[in-house]
Amino acid sequence: MTFVLSEADYKGLGLQFNNSKKPDSKLPNSGTVHWLPAVLGCGYTHSLELLPGVWLDVIDKEFSQSWALKVPVHDHLVQITVLLSGSVNYDGSYPSLEPKRSYFSGCGISPGYVAWYQQSQHLQGVNIHFTPAVLEQMLADQSPELRQALLCYGDWKKAWFPKVTPTMRAVAQQIIHCPFEGATRRVYLQAKVFELLALQLEEVLAATKQQPASQLKPGTLDCIYQARDLLTVQIENPPSILELAEQVGVCDRTLRRGFRKLFGTTVIGYLTQQRMIRAEQLLREQHNTVAEVANKVGYTHLGHFAAAFKRQFGITPSECIAGQNVSTD
């Protein structure tokens, strides 16, 4: 069975932990170690404030069972995440994070999401947060388009998922395996964090030049996110695109355009992603047949379901039941 925990649930489990996986001795002694609750596995997130408004997290966790964290709508800082191993799957609101795909988000309001973690995986990587003021100061002489994309005060944040280059991966490894001690260590980590920021900004700058800024109004954005939530809870018997557009108060053309801009896919593509994510969760629980899972996510034709599942994860439903990991290609 997969645990689905709220943030309050997770914090409630935090007093019981398995510290068999100790923090790397090369990390600074200062900062805070947040242990993974023992019921979920072992490991930690080591958090350190490198500079005012700049925080570094080093993540090293191993999961003894599959679980998920449900996160509500919240204010969001500027964030970079690069994983060296493991993956985090979402409820369709974001692409999966993995060693080949990083995450870079501007500040603003983050929609709610559910993050899914798989049993028996080793999650290792770095997570960096900046306050908007830090980035605003650095971008003072940059284009208005870049500043507007990254600094969405009071509006929905924008996020990018740059491919992890060998240089990005090397910098993340250097952060985790810092070769210095004492004061030199902190200076080194500061330099590496900003080097990683520069590499990510280069990718984002290229993306903002290629793609014009979203023309969706705040009210329309709310409608698109509402439509996404409706699809998520009605994956077995979803409304048509026209019905969905009518339910949230926009025309079908705006709905289609909004899904492409916000989620990078069509309405049907998003629905299929949701169905496959739910199907994988049900198959991993191992008390459902392939036919039962297909029916639960709205498929009446087993062949169509199996083909869609393999396109999404690179393995068949039967291989998933047998415990084979999904493809990260």
First CA to last CA: what distance?
27 Å
Main sheet: strands, sense, barrel: 7 strands, antiparallel
Separate helix tally: 12
Task: Spell out the helices and strands N to C.
Answer: EHEEEEEEEEEEEHHEEHHHHHHHHH
Radius of gyration over alpha carbons? Answer: 21 Å
Low-confidence stretches: none
Shape descriptor reads globular
Number of strands: 14
Notes on the structure:
The chain is an alpha+beta fold and 329 residues long. Helix content is 42%, strand content 23%. A hairpin with a 2-residue loop joins strand 3 (41-51) and strand 4. It is globular. The chain is built from twelve helices and 14 strands. The longest helix has 29 residues, at 182-210.
Question: How are the elements arranged and paired?
Answer:
Elements: E1 3-6, H1 7-13, E2 32-35, E3 41-51, E4 54-63, E5 67-71, E6 74-76, E7 78-85, E8 89-90, E9 103-105, E10 107-110, E11 113-117, E12 122-130, H2 132-138, H3 144-150, E13 151-156, E14 159-160, H4 166-176, H5 182-210, H6 218-233, H7 241-248, H8 252-263, H9 267-284, H10 290-296, H11 302-313, H12 317-321
